[in-house]
Amino acid sequence: MASRVWEYTPGGTETLPPIVVVPGSLERIVSGPTEWGESRTREEVIGDALCCERKVAPTTLYEIRDALVSHGSVYARGQRYTLVRKPVRAAFRGAPETIDEAVLVSSTGGSNYFGTWIMEDCAQQLLAELLGPEVIDIARPVYMHEPGYRELLELPAPRQVEHALVRKLTVIVDHGATFDKRRRITTLRERLRKNLGPLPPAQCGVYVDRGATGVRRSLTNKDVVIARLKERGFSVIEPEKLTSRQVATAFATAKCVMGIEGSQSAPTVISMSTGSTVIELHPANRFFPPRRVYLNPFGIRYAALVCPSRNDQEFEAKLDELDGLLELCASTLQPVS
Predict the structure, then answer these.
(1) What is the pLDDT of residues 78-107, one digit of tens each?
(2) DSSP structure string for 119-182
(3) Which CATH fold topology does 18-51+201-332 show?
């Protein structure tokens, strides 16, 4: 599809701190996520969780000539690069507008999930603004908290393109926490903290209630878990009932953030302070810790509680393991800065 491909910044290797877990928790893992057609064995999923040595991908640029950006996809040279899995409109039949040159600031994940958008696409936009005369986004629904975070991060919304022929289109590919992306996330973290202004006093912890947004994942003993956390000084937030500023402030002042794995916890990457900890609750048959590689480089520990589950939508946290994990995390916490 691309007429030219080049490495913007190289990749490499790194050593991450281990995931904080209670003994025997990872052995409960049955599988990783399956909704994207991935096929990984239980041993591979557990091996990734235990592994501290990892490869870091390069940041790569693809130049595509005469690319048709339409219906949530990019078409060129008889190939299709799908971005939006559920396009907002039916396929266009009329003549497309023509754009001479543009940089696309849309990833496959970020075009479908808020969590990926805030971890990847926001950082990608900083690079796109340096590369081209115009930054464009694929036509997609705007996430509920997107306008608020754009204001806090000083990221103007790019024009969403529905049906256009781009004579020279640049596509950025830097999956995961690449070295160059970390530099850009550092800029976003600095902007966010500046625009939040003076913060209220630090709090012990925040539990993020997933609510009704996103894919259904239900902690069947949520009320019991919340009661136990409140005894430990945690507060509870429901992001869908708060503004972006309120969510970011809660994360920025928390020594520990806990919640079911999902997009609602993704803003911790740009919000939480060095020395803090994120704890995510995972159903045993959907262990998926993508935030680890984004949090660790900023001195934020990642912990996981693998919960017995009937399926990937209903699972239960064991209170003794929850207490044990909180004690482990308390012993690894550094002063929050």
Answers:
(1) 999 999 987 656 556 689 999 999 999 999
(2) IIIHHHHHHHHHH-S-EEEES-PPPTTHHHHHHHHT-PPPEEESEEEEEEEEEEE--SS-HHHH
(3) Rossmann fold (3.40.50)
